[in-house]
Amino acid sequence: MIRNILITFSLLLFLGLYSFAYVDIVYPSSQNLTINSDIMFFSGNTDSNVKINSNPVKLWENKFFVHTVPLKYGKNVIKITAEKNGKTEEKVYIITRNKLPLNKANPSKNLYKSFSGSILFSKTVKNDSTVRDNPSLAGNRIVDLPKGVNLYFDAKQGNYYKINAQSETSLWIHKSNINNPVEIKTKIKAIVKNINNRSDKHYDYIRFNLSYPVMFTLKQSDNKLKLTLYGIYDEETKNTKNFEYIVDYNSPQLGYDCYYEGNTLIFKKAKLPEIIDDNAPLKGINIFVDAGHGGHEKGTISPERIYEKNINLDIALDLIDLLKASGANVSYSRSHDTKVGLYERVHSAKKNNALISISIHCNSLPYGKNPYEKHGTEVHYYNDNAKILADIINKNIANDLNIKLNGTHKSSFVLTRSTNPVSVLIETAYMINPNEYILLKNGYFRHNIAKSVKKSIEEYILFLRQNKS
Questions:
Q1: Among residues 50, 46, 49, which one has the least CA distance to residue 61?
Q2: Maximum CA extent, the chain
Q3: Whole-angstrom Cα distance, residue 230 to residue 153?
Q4: Which domain holds residue 401?
Q5: 330 and 433 share a domain?
Q6: Is 355 helix (H, G, I), strand (E, B) or coil?
Q7: Are residues 241 and 262 in the same domain?
Q8: 277 in a domain, yes or no?
């Protein structure tokens, strides 16, 4: 009840601060834009009669609107008029539609430089040092290396160095992640000295004692995971080759992580509690709940200038209460309107030994998309071990709340990339779609989203128990 009052108060406050004489245009935020699309949407709120290019605009409850305008190539002059008490206000927007540029050869390819005949050596200087399969931010992420990993390079392209490794794909790392490379005569021998195992309440650990920290990758396949250590010297054959270690789960994979303590690479995999109660499957389960955005990170903005961050928090707080009532051990990123860093959220989930991480969001829409066509609920994951949970949540929200099913999507977000815990990001509904926005404003609807997510986590835990070897 209190949260509903706060959202209503926020609406009145935003309207008072941002409204113009007769109409408040929320999107687009600029009156001069260039886009590559055949359509543009306008959203906002008003207490008058509004027309866009002389066409009447439909007003939804509380007199907000979401209106689409077709675009021709070149400059489009779009006039918005609002009439009230015999007076007229006019705003003019210039939306330029460009033709998509022809694909051109990447000029950076000309910068490729090979270091044949020499070896460059460096180390990663920070955690989450991303290795990609090509020298570009568009490249697929192969692994995020921790600080202090020894690397060798045989080429450079732009700001990326190519890692010298026997790999099925090229491996590239940005210069910001490493020390300034230096030339050396020969590679330092990397040796696996021994391997040992241990366990605690939450994890099983495999410890690889090495002569120094080496490049590694992890690859999921079905219920197995392959850990590859690159450039390991085999004392028996006197050859350098990749060392592969297969972790067989014999059941759906839970969270896992890989990190260094000194020269020891530690692989850990999460454990499902031995006893799962049919009537209380979440009892004792560690769950992390993230309310997306917060503080000055507002998220998407509704036609009435309600911020996504507030709706996310309301759903998250309901979910936290429901999970706690079910016996789960719940940690969370925020319980009020405050800014929390993206990696801070991930590290908090790890610190609290969460088995599952749920990030709550409402969906936005880029310029050029049709808000009456693009809408619904969708769930994002990145690692294979999270797809089952993502599918269960997406199906349940769509069915329980009678909302369009947009499916699950493999997406490289900070909140989905973590392999431990099992991590998903939920886009509950679109704030720019009028029907779904009206639903999101309803406290009962938001509470039912939380109930559906809680039910989905229960189903997931029972699925894991049933398929546990």
A1: 46
A2: 93
A3: 13
A4: 286-466
A5: yes
A6: coil
A7: yes
A8: no
| Beta strand pairing call for 87-97 and 32-35 | parallel
Beta bridge partners of 216: 229
Residues 114, 169 within the same domain: yes
List, for residues 80-138, the tens digit of each pLDDT value: 999 988 889 999 999 999 886 545 444 445 456 666 667 899 999 999 999 999 999 98
Q: Are residues 300 and 264 in the same domain?
A: no
Query: Which region, left, alpha or beta, applies to residue 12 given φ > 0 means left and ψ of -120 to 50 means alpha?
Result: alpha
Joined together, the tokens standing for residue 210 give: 């090495």
Q: Which amino acid is it at 350?
A: K
State pLDDT tens for residues 161-199.
Answer: 999 998 889 999 999 999 999 998 888 899 999 999 999
Task: At 60, list the tokens.
Answer: 């939804």
348 CB contacts (<8 Å, ≥6 apart)?
288, 331, 333
Is the same domain home to 212 and 319?
A: no
Strand ranges in 74-149 using DSSP code E only, listed in sequence order: 74-84, 87-97, 113-114, 119-123, 129-132, 141-145
User: Given its phi and psi angles, is residue 425 left (phi above 0), alpha (psi -120 to 50 degrees) or beta?
Assistant: beta
Q: Which two tokens stand for residue 236?
A: 């028996």
Residue among 284, 275, 272 at smallest CA distance from 203: 272
For residue 368, is it left (φ>0), alpha (ψ between -120 and 50) or beta? left
pLDDT higher at 238 or 264: 264
Pair (375, 329) in one structural domain: yes
In 3D space, the residue among 154, 150, 94 whose CA is nearest the CA of residue 122 turns out to be 150
